[in-house]
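Tip: read the tokens left to right.
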């Protein structure tokens, strides 16, 4: 197998909307929650994701947890190993996710990737999960959008990369 496609993934946002509302790129999940709470009385929602494509949302959890608990513990969690829940950092993260769940765009669990990008373009969501390709497509008529790393529990920047492979016989 050989990689044929490689790009970073993170939170895509409208630069003007973010700064005009006094927000900055979230480094930690506490920052993320603060922004979410600050969006409650705005004319847009905080975050939406492509719930109809579950793999689209796993990376945000990995970026939050891996710097704090390590790849081995994260693998246990993602494999639904009950022992993973003994880790206090995972419990803390679950509590933070619980706060965020109430503040995502209604219907996110059924949205497609195209739906989320449309919500961002239409000013209905502040953040969406996306790739460099998504950012390039959004910015084809100007540099209105930017991408940042997913927030982490520790505040340490965690770059997530996606890639495709081809088989060489």
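Filled-in amino acids:
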């Amino acid at each position: 197998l050989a990689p044929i496609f490689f790009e970073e993934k993170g939170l895509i946002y409208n630069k003007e909307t973010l700064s005009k509302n006094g927000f900055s790129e979230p480094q930690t999940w506490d920052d993320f929650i603060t922004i979410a709470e600050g969006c409650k009385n705005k004319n847009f929602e905080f975050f939406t994701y492509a719930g109809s494509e579950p793999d689209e949302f796993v990376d945000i959890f990995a970026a939050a947890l891996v710097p704090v608990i390590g790849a081995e513990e994260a693998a246990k969690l993602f494999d639904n190993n009950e022992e993973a829940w003994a880790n206090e950092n995972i419990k803390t993260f679950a509590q933070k996710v619980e706060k965020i769940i109430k503040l995502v765009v209604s219907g996110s669990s059924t949205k497609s990737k195209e739906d989320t990008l449309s919500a961002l373009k239409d000013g209905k969501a502040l953040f969406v999960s996306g790739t460099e390709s998504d950012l390039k497509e959004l910015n084809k008529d100007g540099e209105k959008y930017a991408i940042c790393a997913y927030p982490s529990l520790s505040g340490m920047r965690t770059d997530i990369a996606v890639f495709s492979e081809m088989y060489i016989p």
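The beta strands are 2-14, 45-48, 125-131, 145-148, 160-166. Residues 55-78 form the longest helix (24 residues).
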